[in-house]
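Data card: per-record layout.
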Amino acid sequence: MIRKNIIIVCILVITATGAFANRRHFSYVYESPVLPRGGREIEIWNTLRTDKNKFYRGIDHRVEYEMGLGSGFQTSLYLNLSTEATGDPITWGNELSISNEWKFSISDPTADVIGSAIYAEWTLKPDETELEAKIILDKHFGDFLSAANISFEHEIPGHGSGGANIIETVAALSYVINNNCSFGFEARHHTISEEDVTTSALFVGPTFSVSDKSWWATISIMPQIGLGNNKENTSSNIELSKHEKVEARVLLSFEL
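The structure for this 256-residue chain is written out next.
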């Protein structure tokens, strides 16, 4: 029923598009621009995560309502649905959550020496609360766009003890082919610290972005290439207890 409702929402969004909106060139890396005052968008996220130490498939869906507040501020509300299939025999799990994002643009990536923004997000899940802070940097130079983010996330379990700290650094470089198309690469280093155990993984892969007057879309494929912190005492640098072999993400956005 939940899946059916989300599909219906997506169809309604697609049929209600307007003029071209605030574009993202990358799927994992955020950029500093924000929507103008009164600007509104719907973004639809789909992330596929595949394979760990045993059979694993994870699919994350997000539907985001984004609104420009003026004076460099933007806020968003998310409805999130995560589905996981794991083990042998296969077991399924679903989790529904909500998120609220706030973003403040400090400088422009074209007019200023460097573009910059700060970002905060909270997520409320059935069994925990997540708090995230992010620094965003980007720069246009000629036909190229570069961007980098560093973020810190703290998970607060509902029972009040334990939890995890997550540090993520992402960077990207894209060649802007024309006003409607760009191609590049993203890199993502992700570290999870839980009690006295820390694991990390590095993902690198291509990203592609297209846009038109009323919509934009990006797709990234991010295989894990190792160089992470593997606590399983094996010869492999690929970390598969907390991270997947491959992630792929598609973003679609439409202005309301």
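Known properties of this structure: The helical segments are 2-14. Residues 2-255 form a domain with the Porin fold (CATH 2.40.160.40).

See the next section for split statistics.
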